[in-house]
Amino acid sequence: RMIEPERRDATARAVAGARSGSIILLHDIHASTAAAVPGIIDQLRAKGYVFVTVSELLGPTTPGKTYLRRG
User: Fold this and answer.
1) CA pair distance 48, 41, nearest whole angstrom
2) Contact 52, 70 (CB under 8 A)
3) Tell me: the pLDDT tens digits for 21-64?
4) Is 26:20 a contact under the CB 8 Å cutoff?
5) What is the C-alpha to C-alpha distance for residues 35 and 30, in angstroms, rounded to an integer?
6) DSSP annotation of 48
7) Could you give the CA distance from residue 68 to residue 4 in angstroms, rounded to a whole number?
8) CA dist., res. 11 & res. 31, Å (int)
9) Is residue 2 classed as helix, strand or coil in its secondary structure?
10) pLDDT tens sequence across 62-71
11) Which of 28, 27, 42, 37 is nearest to 7 (CA)?
12) In degrees to the nearest 10, what's the CA dihedral of 40, 45, 50, 52?
């Protein structure tokens, strides 16, 4: 399938770039990106990552303010 190499690439990039506190932004306008999500989740869970909402990650926020790192 033509989508397979792109799906593998998207999965590899997301998993390789993940760090504690990372937010992974994906656009589902590309079929390969949408297809990569289950593999990304599975691989990150296998590495011990836990998924939380942005609100859980950042805590209270102020609209219009830029947040570069927690703390």
Assistant:
1) 11
2) no
3) 899 988 888 888 999 999 999 999 999 999 999 889 888 999 99
4) no
5) 9
6) T
7) 33
8) 13
9) coil
10) 999 988 865 5
11) 37
12) 30
pLDDT at 70: 55
| CA dist., res. 11 & res. 19, Å (int) | 15
Of 49, 67, 2, the residue nearest 30 (C-alpha): 2
Residue 27: what pLDDT?
87
Structure tokens at 31: 């079929």
User: Which residue type sits at 9?
Assistant: D
Give the helix ranges, DSSP H, for the chain: 3-17, 31-46, 54-58
The amino acid occupying position 69 is R
Structure tokens at 45: 């869970």
Q: What residue type is assigned to position 38 of the chain?
A: P
